[in-house]
Amino acid sequence: MSSEDSTPAEGTQTPAKSTSGLKTGIAIVAVAALAGTAGFAVANSTGGSEVTGGGPTAQGEGATAGEAAATVTAVDIPGENRGYEEVHTDEPLVDTDWLAERLDEGDLYEQGIVLLDVSEDLPTSELTPYSEAHIPQAQYVEWSSAFTQPNTREFISAEEFTELAQSLGINDDTTVVLYGDNNNWFAAYAAWVFNLYGVQDVKLLDGGLHKWEIYDGRELTEEVPSVPEGSLEAKPQNHDIRAFQPEVLEIAEVNAAAGGEAAADVNLVDIRSAEEHNGEVGVDPEIFQGEGASIWGHIPGSVNVTWTQIVDPETGEFLPAEEIRAIYEEAGVDFSKPIIAYCRIGERASHTWYALSQILGEQVKVYDGSWSEWGNSVGVPVANNSGQRAGLWGQSGD
To answer: Could you say which of 3.90.120.10, 3.40.250.10, 3.40.50.720, 3.80.30.20 is the CATH number of the domain covering 85-234?
Structure first.
């Protein structure tokens, strides 16, 4: 599997307009308009041409835009619009001292705490995999299969999430503490999914397994805990914290029409590497399997803040809130506007979502389709700072 992003859903779908608390279905017709931009290329993968602005393209300079391509979808993603308030936690982070003290007090379940390990467990990791040893009283959740349906990349249903949560011993008043490897990439993704289904009290162990095992040198155990079945009932997905492609497409079109500037009333934050954002590289399909994209670059108007900029390189903990805010402001994020974060398959974007939403208290969505969806879609606008399209369908000379 990936060492970069998480998995979940998409397609070209977006929540229909609804009032708070009403179940919504999704049925959308999205039209991708193309516009000239300065300093990068906007790719139209159906029109046979590109608009260029500041660099050569794979099809030569001075090309004109082809006709806009229409993307049509009619799918049903049950959900509702519950706003942002229920997902904001007063104390979103707990440190390793806090957890060690709770463990010293005895049974976490009796204290109303469920501790979950959500790790990627790569063979190259310096950290001990859960199957060999783990933080005492932690249960394991397999990120690549627990949250999503087979073959669709859509999430499990609310009913299935209820079964999962209850099997982990989670009740309505449980404090769920998540941690993982890779500086909590997948733990943050799990936190976003838990919030998506209405779990109220969700926290991250700041620094994750790296902080506990490597930096602090604390104990691990082989014992797997057994907990009573919980009673939590999941809510439908909260579509106020999840973005679908047509919503992002509307923003991208506004930005592309403004020459690639962030002209829309929503910030787009691309948290991939600078090389991926610029369109200099894609991904190695032999490593990342189904996560590759035929077109390289970024969504027009997005700012690039790689997730590593907001964590301490030694401990893996989040930087102080004021430093995190300053990093995004310097990159061009306007905090008077809501934010949509994306990466390659949604997992690193969840890490950014946690920082911006939970730590800073901003209104943030995750576009979990991310670049694996956008970079394989026909007709959507793509910006490429390298001056030419890249990837499978746009190599120089093709």
So the answer is: 3.40.250.10
